[in-house]
Design brief:
2 domains, alpha+beta
């Protein structure tokens, strides 16, 4: 069986997109992991199936690079929106269903894709960290000299500590620069640092607003290893955020096909 795919990236966070509107593609965990492998497969941080869903433009089914279905992926949500436009399913707006519920998305004339995230009503404040769920769980910690910080080693320690080892968490390290918030992320499921993480920069922006280091009153400009993003939001009381939008590029890298038999 020959599987057609498109490769997309959003600020370096890259994904394999597959059109499964006919519901005829079934991939097991090992197959997905191998497709995402950067040496033996296509290479990606995750794989996304675009499927039909009554009452919505489409449904997003997201798998981490380890082959397991995962929680919401913000950059993936922006990329699948661009993909749906490429397929002719939508024009400049979409409403789709993901594992964490319904999402809205907008595509600007310059190709920038904005994704509405779920409301955040509960943020845990620890001694030197914050913990919150923006569609996926995120541990956020401010550090110095983030450019030279060992994100892999320090992120792995937190992801596999006694509290998070079983279910895992994404770990975000942040540092305020002159006019942006620099964010680096260790992602569970990838089990490594990624160039960007949509739900992670969203979590980082909300923490920045809580701690007073946000770059704006109702927005935060984000710099990641893969490029620039912006998070806008509204706030009620201290830890209740709504109307949260994640904005940035979503670009098709290439398209192709691969015989499924070769990856079984």
């Amino acid at each position: 069986m020959q599987i057609k795919f498109h490769k997309y990236q959003g600020t370096g966070n890259d994904f394999i997109l597959i059109d499964n509107r006919q519901n005829n593609i079934e991939l097991n965990t090992q197959q997905i992991a191998q497709l995402c492998d950067r040496r033996f497969g296509i290479g990606a941080d995750g794989l996304i199936l675009l499927e039909l869903e009554p009452g919505f433009d489409f449904r997003m089914v997201y798998f981490n690079a380890d082959g397991n279905q995962s929680s919401m992926c913000g950059n993936g949500g922006r990329c699948i929106t661009a993909y749906a436009q490429h397929l002719g399913m939508i024009q400049n707006s979409a409403r789709f269903l993901a594992i964490d519920g319904a999402h809205e998305a907008l595509i600007a004339a310059d190709g920038m894709v904005s994704l509405k995230m779920q409301e955040v009503k509960q943020i845990e404040a620890g001694d030197d960290f914050f913990y919150l769920n923006t569609g996926s769980p995120h541990y956020v910690k401010a550090v110095e000299n983030l450019k030279n910080y060992n994100v892999f080693e320090e992120g792995k320690k937190i992801r596999y500590n006694e509290r998070f080892a079983e279910e895992g968490t994404n770990v975000n390290f942040i540092e305020k620069t002159d006019d942006t918030l620099f964010v680096r992320t260790y992602e569970r499921g990838v089990e490594d640092e990624t160039f960007s993480c949509g739900t992670g920069v969203t979590a980082a922006a909300l923490v920045a607003a809580l701690t007073g280091i946000s770059t704006g009153k109702n927005n935060c400009l984000i710099k990641t290893l893969g490029g620039d993003l912006e998070v806008t939001f509204e706030k009620v009381l201290d830890r209740n955020f709504y109307n949260i939008w994640l904005k940035g590029p979503a670009v098709m890298v290439f398209e192709g096909s691969i015989p499924l038999a070769e990856i079984i």
